[in-house]
Amino acid sequence: MNPEFWHERWEKNEIGFHQENINAPLQKYWQSLKLDNNESVFVPLCGKSRDLLWIQSLGHPVLGVEISPLGVETFFKENNLQASSVSDGKFIRWKCGALEILCGDYFDLQLSHLEGVTVVYDRASLVALPPEMREQYVKHFVSLLPQEVRILLLTLEYQQKEMQGPPFSVSEEEVNDLYGNSYQIGKLQEQEVLEDIPHFKERGLTSLTEKVYLLTCLPTADSRSGRE
After folding, report:
1. What pLDDT, in 10s, does the model give residues 37-71?
2. d(CA 175, CA 192)
C-alpha cells in the first residue's frame, strides 16, 4: 500500500473511513486519558476528521498528520477555518490557531515534529494499514514518542476473508504483540457494531467488533515491587 493508493481514494471520494459525527468512544473514554490543561494531542492519519475540532474545543493543542493534500484542504474548507501553510521538511504544515495538520507521509515524521505531544488518539490509523505495515507503523511511533505518552486506540475485528481492507481487522492478540513491550494495555470496550455501519454488511461482513484500548506507561520495576 503506497501513497498513490490514498491519493486515489481521496480523488474518487472513496473515504468510507470518514465519520461525519464525533466518534462516540472518543467522547465516552476521553476522561480515561486524565489530561491536564493544554496537553498536546497527536492524531495520526487524521483525514478530515471532525474529532480534531472536538479535542481542540476542550482546550488542547492538536496535531494531525495526513498524506492527502485534498483531505487537508477539505478539512479546513468544510469547517470554515482560515489556515496558513508553510513548508516543514518533507511536510506542508497547515495551522489554524492551536490546530495543526502536517500534510505528508507519516513515516517521514521526525522527533522534532512531535515535540511536546503527550497523548495520541488513534481511531483510523492502525486499522488502515495492511499487516506488513503495522509493525513498521508501531516501531516508528515508539521511536518518536516517549513511553509516558497515553494512547486511546480503536480497532476493528472481523473475519478478514469476508472483506478486503482497509479498514483491516486487527486482533487483540496483535495489539498486544505490537504494543506490549512498550505500553501497558487496558481494554475499555468490546462491542458488536455491524448494525451501526450497514455499508460493511453490504461488503459481506457477518460480524464486526469494535475494541477500545487505553495504552499507558509500563510500571517500573520499583512500582511493581511496591518500593518508592
Report:
1. 889 999 999 999 999 999 999 999 999 999 999 99
2. 18
